[in-house]
Specification:
about 160 residues; alpha/beta; Rossmann fold; four-stranded parallel beta sheet; about 40% helix; about 10% strand; binds flavin mononucleotide; NAD(P)H-dep_reductase; FMN binding
Length: about 160
């Protein structure tokens, strides 16, 4: 399992002319390699103005570009099992960002599991050691992870 924080990547904004003139950045190549090594994807995002964040969509756009081998980057999403969770300080917990991201992943051919979780009042939800204070929220988000692992195992055993 690999944890990726997009804050560590600082990718340039995807733009066709940039790609043509300077190629795909090495940091994107690293993400493409990581995606190739994993069967499942769990995306966790805050919400910006009713949608998922621009940096998340930018990363997905870059990763979907052709790989060094020439293989389409979209294949890094196709048939991958995916789940989406969100968090925000508002009462809806970024629910709209989660729904929008599900649509993007489905367009790319990922198998998005039905379970999801939105954490409202996220700025108050964690203890000092980084755990969720509410046992029900903790169980719900763990159920998303368990659902992701379960579907991935079922598909890879076929
Ligand atoms: C430009 C901007 C727009 C935002 N729009 C929403 C929104 O529509 N709904 C929402 O629940 N939170 C919204 N927020 C709050 C974010 O979901 C989030 O809590 C904040 O960016 C901190 O995220 P972080 O803790 O991952 O850094 C917005 C924040 C920013 C900066």
């Amino acid at each position: 399992m690999t944890f990726i924080s997009l804050a560590d990547y600082q990718l340039p904004l995807y733009e066709g002319d940039f790609e043509m003139e300077r190629g795909v950045p090495e940091r994107v190549r690293e993400l493409q390699r990581l995606f190739a090594e994993h069967e499942a994807l769990l995306i966790a995002s805050p919400e910006h103005n009713g949608g998922y964040t621009a940096s998340l969509k930018n990363a997905i756009d870059w990763i979907s570009r052709p790989r060094e081998s020439g293989e389409p980057g979209v294949l890094l999403f196709a048939r991958k099992v995916a789940a989406v969770v969100s968090a925000s300080p508002g009462p809806m917990g970024g629910l709209r960002s989660m729904l929008g991201m599900r649509g993007v992943l489905e367009k790319l051919g990922a198998i998005v599991i039905p379970q999801g979780f939105s954490l409202g009042a996220a700025h108050l939800a964690f203890t000092k050691d980084g755990n969720l204070a509410d046992a029900k929220a903790d169980a719900e988000v763990r159920a998303v992870g368990a659902g992701l692992v379960g579907v991935t195992r079922q598909l890879s055993s076929r």
